[in-house]
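Students often ask why inverse folding is considered easier than folding. One informal answer: many sequences map to the same fold, so there is more than one right answer. In these notes we will look at a single instance of the problem. The structure comes first.
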């Protein structure tokens, strides 16, 4: 009797890293940067020393209050990062993580520099 089963395809595991760093680590770092951005934005707005440049987030801050602003921003970011981690082997997820880093790293830097002027 002949074995008619097909051999299992050997599938190479796609990388779950970006720039040599595991994608979950990058996700935690992006969430940390977003938390810095959120807190520093609230701090600047409460002292009337800054403005929220994102019209949607400006509306949420002024109509929903600080807690709604904080929750909205962190929950929305967390959901996006969950999607990135779930899709980590795919190129689109790694690109999304790179875009998030390239947006929030300078924003956090600008907030930190603004803190000391």
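Output (designed amino acids):
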């Amino acid at each position: 009797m002949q074995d008619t089963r097909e051999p299992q395809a050997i599938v190479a595991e796609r990388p779950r890293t970006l720039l040599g760093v595991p994608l979950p680590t990058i996700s935690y770092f992006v969430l940390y940067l977003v938390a810095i951005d959120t807190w520093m934005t609230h701090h600047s707005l409460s002292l009337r020393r800054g403005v929220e440049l994102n019209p949607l987030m400006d509306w949420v801050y002024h109509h929903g209050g600080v807690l709604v602003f904080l929750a909205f921003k962190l929950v929305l970011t967390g959901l996006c990062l969950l999607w990135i981690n779930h899709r980590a082997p795919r190129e689109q997820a790694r690109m999304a993580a790179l875009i998030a880093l390239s947006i929030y790293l300078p924003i956090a830097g600008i907030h930190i520099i603004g803190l000391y002027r």
